[in-house]
Amino acid sequence: MSTAPTAQPLVLDEPTWHARRDDHRARVDSWLEGHRQRRSHGRPHPVEDFLFEYYSYRPYQLRRWHPGHGVRLTGDSAAELADLRDYRRSSAGVSVDTAAVLSARGETVAWVHNLLRRTVGRPAQYGCFGLHEWAMVYRQDQRRLRHPQLPLRFPPERVAAIVEERGVRCTHFDAYRFFTEPARPLNLLPLTRQGQPEVEQPGCLHANMDLYKWAYKLSPLTPSELVADCFALAREIRELDMRASPYDLTSLGYAPVAVETAEGRAVYVAAQRVFADRAEPLRRALLRLTDELLG
Description:
about 5% strand; mainly alpha; 13 helices; single chain
């Protein structure tokens, strides 16, 4: 695996990078406060806690600030990062050891790059109407649902009828793999991990949520501000995802997006388009990073 191009690093003095670090921590702490309280009382939240439970990046990792690839930190307090894995210290300061990260995770960087490149060049599709969440409960025993503490908006037979009437047009493997066994044959096409770059498209809610995953998988090469931007978008997308699901979240203060109706589908698509537009610059920022890393 070749190393990244040796461009001149961006040098940040101590006051500058301290301010960036502190702003990042304050931003993340605003997301973590409620999560920590709920966790201490054993009360999971299907919207607010999802990103901490589904994705592998732990809260302390999200809170830790990284300057990203091609940045050098100066000042005595840079030692707080120098002792971390994937960093190196020199007489000029402290920076991410890009060559070491690429040596260990070069295949991951290349895989993410290919997925982002293929996705960004593909037209967005807006015809799924959020039925992936319905396919996850299709003809499933209530006790085996992912959120058994929440009631469904319809009896199971009505949920099944809606899925069968509308059909399922999911293009995201990591949603598809949670479909119930009876629901998978109802999808427009079978999905596989190997085929993910062939079908992933920028209108998909889950593909845009996963920008957070790709951002942190490239960490510490990714600036923490970009990881946090992707996290912030994923939080908002998750709300729409669950409001359009067959679960009843009114007790948590979320009104349903009734995708079983024409009006609800129109609301869903309008929001989906907004999220796709907001995701595009984040996807392109990650693609620029992987372009630079791979030379």
